[in-house]
């Protein structure tokens, strides 16, 4: 167990506060590390150093910046098993998913390091003779990144990698539930050759460390992933400073299964989407919309397979589902299960698991409700292993139910009808749609994000990853050697 400090200007230094907090394993309560409960003053020191480091980092050729990120990916690849176990211990997802979290971070670093040889702008003709027009991308300056706990290596790396390749310097605040994973990423980036001050890491509460990052005018842009309440507060606060903000927020993601679908395939996708990461993914399948013609057949399969689910130590590769992230998560999910018991029909699970090893951690059974559309459990994000199943009579009704929701992150439809599949791509109001695949499974070279209350329009990853971290400069080069006036020309 290690007592960490905060990381500023390339050194682990004491926080202004001597208050500390622990990060624990949700499986058994073991303390994994302790961190400072940072202060606004810590953030200000981090900003000082990030500002100081910015001019040299900005001038470092982008392919050289990419080399550092690629080295970090190589270090992570060599340490993947150990890092995957750390994710599993700190966050509770099963080991295959813990390693998957790390693999996603590696994939992104490899992908974005190549972006250092692109950072593409545009060239266009001019409306005037002997004049050349283009756009170039420039870094924004010091940027602030604030992340949640459910992907403790992948989400931080999505932000860090994109911000750094574009030439920004960073003040980073991790979720207080999973600071250890990010602290180790910081160590890896240092080992890969990141210069001092380019990435600064301050732990502590959202209302203090987080808010100082958002409010401080010297932080020029914010990248946030988390829940709607914090996202809304951050967006509104930053708006007062006219500061660009990208918020990636919650989801209530539907899978539609039509009556011509391959039910066995749909079943596997629904189970993985609903109960993978114990349902604590922004893209988790939380609504299953079943056509009435296959309703009973699908429900029988679903319940039979869920009965075989094992819940326990997430480091054991035989276990299907680990604990939820902490006591607060447990209470919040159990509260929704109570609500569900009053307004819907519980068909499987619904219990907190207790006794033996369960008494040391935070365990919930995978849970399935049959419900009508419109109940709270069918509309609010639960962020746990709770699936709401809704029966519909037609494709049109399925789309209406899927879309009648405040979120719009991911969606899926299982059908063998290619026409219907393409109609669904048009009709589903989400940033991501899967055909014959679950709602989870992002690939790093494609844009990721949602519509409606899931975000404010940005997309992380893919070719769009650098958009939130770059300003576009438009450049006109006039080589006519005379004054030419756009729009003020003789008619041809
Ligand atoms: P929170 O919104 O509670 O926290 C996210 C981060 O924001 C944490 O680092 C937290 O700090 C910090 N924070 C909280 N309040 C403030 C504030 N007022 N000002 C600045 N920072 C603040 O989310 P969770 O960590 O609980 O994550 C779960 C949520 O994240 C779910 O709603 C999920 O859907 C969403 N999510 C969205 C994704 C997407 O890409 N769309 C991906 C993954 C998750 P602290 O931990 O110290 O409280």
Summarize the entry for a quick read.
With 492 residues, this protein is an alpha/beta fold. The protein has 14 helices and 22 strands. Helix 1 crosses helix 7 (206-215), helix 3 (80-91) crosses helix 4 and helix 4 runs parallel beside helix 5 (154-165).
Describe the structure.
By secondary structure, this protein is of the alpha/beta class. It folds into 2 domains: 2-249 and 455-475, Aldehyde Dehydrogenase, Chain A, domain 1; 253-435, Aldehyde Dehydrogenase, Chain A, domain 2, CATH 3.40.309.10. The chain is 37% helix and 21% strand. It has a 7-stranded mixed beta sheet, sandwiched between helices. A 5-stranded parallel beta sheet has the order 10-9-8-11-12, with helices on both faces. Strands 1-5-4 form a 3-stranded mixed beta sheet, with helices on one face. Strand 2 and strand 3 form a beta hairpin.
Number of helices: 14
Number of separate domains: 2
The CATH class name of the largest domain reads Alpha Beta
How would you describe the oligomerization state of the chains in this entry?
Answer: single chain
Helix content: 25-40%
Largest sheet: number of strands, sense, barrel closure:
7 strands, mixed
Helical/strand content category:
alpha/beta
Unreliable segments (pLDDT under 50, ≥5 consecutive)?
A: none
The CATH superfamily title of the largest domain? Aldehyde Dehydrogenase, Chain A, domain 1
Mean pLDDT: 97
The end-to-end distance, rounded to whole angstroms, is 77 Å
CATH architecture of the largest domain: 3-Layer(aba) Sandwich
What fraction of residues sit in β-strands? 15-25%
- CATH topology of the largest domain: the name is Aldehyde Dehydrogenase, Chain A, domain 1
The 3D shape can be described as globular
Query: What small molecules does the structure contain?
Result: NADPH dihydro-nicotinamide-adenine-dinucleotide phosphate
Strand order of the largest sheet: 15-16-17-14-13-19-20
Strand segment tally: 22
Radius of gyration: 24 Å
């Amino acid at each position: 167990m290690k007592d960490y400090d905060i990381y500023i200007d390339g050194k682990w230094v004491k926080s202004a506060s001597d208050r500390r907090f622990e990060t624990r394993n949700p499986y058994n309560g073991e303390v994994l590390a302790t961190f400072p409960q940072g202060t606004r003053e810590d953030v200000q020191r981090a900003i000082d150093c990030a500002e100081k480091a910015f001019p040299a980092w900005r001038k470092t050729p982008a392919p050289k910046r990419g080399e550092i990120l690629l080295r970090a990916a190589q270090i992570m690849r060599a340490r993947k098993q150990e890092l995957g176990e750390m994710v599993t211990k700190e966050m509770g997802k099963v080991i295959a998913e813990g390693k998957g979290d790390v693999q996603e971070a590696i994939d992104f670093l490899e992908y974005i390091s190549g972006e250092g040889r692109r950072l593409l702008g545009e060239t266009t003709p001019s409306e005037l003779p002997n004049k050349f027009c283009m756009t170039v991308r420039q870094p924004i300056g010091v940027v602030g990144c604030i992340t949640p706990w459910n992907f403790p290596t992948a989400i931080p790396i999505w932000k860090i990698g994109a911000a750094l390749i574009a030439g920004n310097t960073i003040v980073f605040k991790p979720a207080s539930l999973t600071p250890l994973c990010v602290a180790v990423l910081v160590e890896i980036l240092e080992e890969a050759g990141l210069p001092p001050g380019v990435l600064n890491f301050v732990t502590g509460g959202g209302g203090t460390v987080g808010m100082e990052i958002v409010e401080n005018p010297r932080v020029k842009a914010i990248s946030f992933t988390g829940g709607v309440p914090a996202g809304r507060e951050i967006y509104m606060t930053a708006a007062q400073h006219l500061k660009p903000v990208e918020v990636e927020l919650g989801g209530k993601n539907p899978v539609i299964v039509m009556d011509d679908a391959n039910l066995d395939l749909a079943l596997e996708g629904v189970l993985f989407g609903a109960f993978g990461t114990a349902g604590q993914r922004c893209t988790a399948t939380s609504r299953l919309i079943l056509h009435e013609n296959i309703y009973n057949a699908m429900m029988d399969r679903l319940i039979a397979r869920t009965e075989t689910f094992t819940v326990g130590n997430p480091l054991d590769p035989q276990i299907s589902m680990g604990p939820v992230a902490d006591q607060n998560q447990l209470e919040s999910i159990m509260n929704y299960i109570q609500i569900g018991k009053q307004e819907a029909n519980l068909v499987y699970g619904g219990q907190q698991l207790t006794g033996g090893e369960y008494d040391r951690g935070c365990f919930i059974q995978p849970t399935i409700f049959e419900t009508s559309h419109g109940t709270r459990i069918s509309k609010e994000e639960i962020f746990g292993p709770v699936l709401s199943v809704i029966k519909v009579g037609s494709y049109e009704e399925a789309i209406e139910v899927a879309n009648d929701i405040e979120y719009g992150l991911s969606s899926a439809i299982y059908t063998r009808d290619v026409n219907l599949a393409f109609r669904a791509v048009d009709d589903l109001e989400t940033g991501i749609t899967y055909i014959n695949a679950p709602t989870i499974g992002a690939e790093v070279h494609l844009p990721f994000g949602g519509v409606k209350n899931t975000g404010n329009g940005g997309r992380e990853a893919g070719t769009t990853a650098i958009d939130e971290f770059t300003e576009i400069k438009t450049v006109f080069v006039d080589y006519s050697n005379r004054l030419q006036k756009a729009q003020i020309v003789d008619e041809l």
